[in-house]
Design a protein that fits this description.
Mean pLDDT: 77
Helix content: over 70%
Radius of gyration: 29 Å
Order of helices and strands: HHHHHHHHHHH
Number of strands: 0
Number of helices: 11
Strand content: under 5%
Largest sheet: none
Structural class: mainly alpha
Distance between the termini: 73 Å
Shape: globular
Number of domains: 2
């Protein structure tokens, strides 16, 4: 009796993606997730760009809060919290206002002397360039001055329009500053309660993730802001001492410029020092300018190898390449403001990502 052989089963069709290797499937999973994150980030940035004044005011309010909060917490040990907030904000307002008044008085007292020194410095620079090894023609500076005057006369309407736009920007900045100050009052007074209320509106699991990510973001942002203030103040002190020793005109305004420029990582401080070197070149001659250029190198080394590792290492754990790319991308996207906010934004995003990836410790085992 013949033996029947079982019929071979036809292979079932494979599900979509089942024939792909594990590496390709993993890559495709990451690809569509990154695509979704990229689209979401683009939409968020677009919305924030439409309300740039409110966004800038909120960012400035967070900066004020992070810097002033230690003063408020210290004062709150002796006085009620509302009075401590007023004390902290008064310090934050009066110190810059007094510094600006001092700068204005310093410049107003030395206007005539500065004009004479700059004219004398330009004459010395012209004679220096006419000699070896440059051998410029004596009429070169006269031609340059005439071209500048002709350009100003031909583009007078454009220059006036630029000045009007600058005044409009100044009004916007004043409005944003007032809004930031108003927001910082509430952040300093009851920021913790506001955050707890916001987190409590979500389901427990989402609220836990939001609370962890938000607190990690605030720790990083506050640490970065306070650290960059310390670094900027240290750079400004070193530059100010050097400018005063070299007897460079406008030493105090140039010191303040160095302080403000230090908020742009990597490039801000060297640019401010170049401006100081040009002032030294015009007022004190090439030797003082060369000494100023040497200061750029020395202060840059102190900032990069001493101040940043000591002050910023706990707050920002970013590679210098990431910092450089972030500053460049921020400046392309939003100019100077983008260059200032790029590094703290990237640092906060990375800290939130690292915090949410970290496993949450479970409850302690019973006895």
């Amino acid at each position: 009796m013949p033996v029947r052989r079982p019929k071979a089963r036809r292979p079932e069709p494979k599900a979509d993606g089942a024939g792909a290797g594990p590496a390709l499937r993993r890559l495709s999973d990451y690809a569509w997730r990154l695509l979704v994150v990229g689209v979401a980030a683009y939409l968020v940035l677009t919305v924030l760009g439409q309300f740039h004044l409110i966004t800038l005011a909120g960012f400035l309010a967070l900066v004020i809060t992070s810097v002033v909060r230690p003063v408020v917490d210290l004062a709150a040990r002796a006085v009620p919290r509302p009075l401590a907030v007023l004390i902290g904000l008064a310090v934050a307002i009066l110190v810059p206002a007094g510094l600006l008044a001092l700068i204005g008085e310093n410049v107003a007292d030395d206007v005539s002397r500065l004009a004479r020194e700059f004219q004398g410095g330009l004459d010395r620079l012209e004679k220096f360039l006419e000699g070896a090894p440059f051998h410029l023609e004596p009429t070169t500076f006269d031609d340059l001055q005439r071209k500048v005057s002709d350009f100003a006369a031909e583009h007078r309407s454009t220059l006036i329009s630029t000045a009007v736009n600058g005044a409009h920007r100044a009004v916007e900045l004043a409005t944003g500053g007032a809004l930031a100050l108003f927001m910082s009052v509430f952040f300093l007074h009851s920021g913790e309660r506001m955050w707890q209320w916001s987190a409590s509106q979500l389901p427990p699991a989402a609220a836990d993730h939001l609370d962890r990510g938000g607190r990690a973001a605030w720790r990083t942002f506050a640490g970065y802001t306070r650290g960059i203030f310390i670094v900027a103040a240290s750079n400004a002190v070193m530059v100010g001492i050097a400018l005063f020793l070299l007897d460079v005109p406008l030493a105090l305004p140039l010191t303040v410029l160095e302080f403000l420029a230090s908020f742009v990582p990597l490039v801000g401080s060297p640019i401010a020092m170049l401006v100081a070197s040009f002032v030294a070149l015009a007022a004190r001659g090439p030797v003082t300018a060369i000494v100023g250029l040497l200061l750029i190198v020395v202060i840059g080394q102190i900032e990069g190898h001493l101040l940043h590792p000591l002050v910023m290492s706990r707050a920002v754990s970013l590679h210098p390449v990431v910092v450089a790319v972030s500053v460049l991308a921020g400046s392309i996207a939003a100019g100077v403001i983008g260059a200032v906010v790029a590094v703290p934004v990237v640092s906060v995003a990375w800290s939130v990502y690292a915090e949410l990836r970290r496993p949450v410790a479970g409850p302690a085992p019973g006895p």
